[in-house]
Amino acid sequence: MSRCDLLLSALALALAACGVTVSGGSSDGVTPTLQFELATAVHDELEALASALVVAGSGAPPGVSLPAGCPTVSSTAGGDGDGVPDDATLTFASPPCSVSGFLGGSLTLSGTYRLRDPSGGNSTAFDVAMTDLRWSYTDPAAVRSYMVTRTGTVNRLGSSDAASLAASLTAVRNRPNRAAATIGIVGGLGFTAEVAGSLRLDQPLPAGRLTLDGNWTWRRSTEDLSLTVATTVPLRYDPSCPGPHRFSAGRVELTDQVQGRQGTLVLTWNGCGTDPATRW
To answer: Residue 24: is its pLDDT beyond 60?
Structure first.
């Protein structure tokens, strides 16, 4: 076994010890390290999009309780009674926007998140604009610390039973001792509540099924991926899961041409509070 193979095997064992399962070799260009980073990036972007399905808790990962004074809100005016402000800018700054205990570590937020009612009518449609919206997570174990900064737009349509998002975002993702990865996200998110009528804009996201699709790009150093994203088993969002990670089941597939070979990275969620297992 070569020194490189020994290092990759050791990394896979370390990730497995942290609740991340990886399989598949690196001969086709997708190493266990890249599998792990793609999987955690998809998980984080799912949380960012899920946050945009409701007005309550906007801009933060679902299930995270923000401290008093975070964020500041420019306006709450909304005369049509649909729960969507006419035009409100949420500004995050640390302090006070810092949360301890997030995944055993700490989370800080900064940047702006603008909510706007495009029609002015009584409906659940709204637009989101993120400008340098940054989530910074510090992991005491130094396994999955990251900082991601999002800029772009999300458009929401739906009812009290189901909703859909159309997103066009750029997420710049930084990890310790690594070059920044720039992720281009163009696609959609679909959500159907398990209990009809339980999807309310002024309440946290209820239990339901999510589907993610679209075209993503991943650019970092020599890594240049154009990914087709598809949900082959709908993801279950379970608000009763302890902690902030609330996807308990489902499968998402990322397909790309890598070093002349077509391949698919399969991400499978197998329970509350865990990262998805990966298979190339």
So the answer is: no
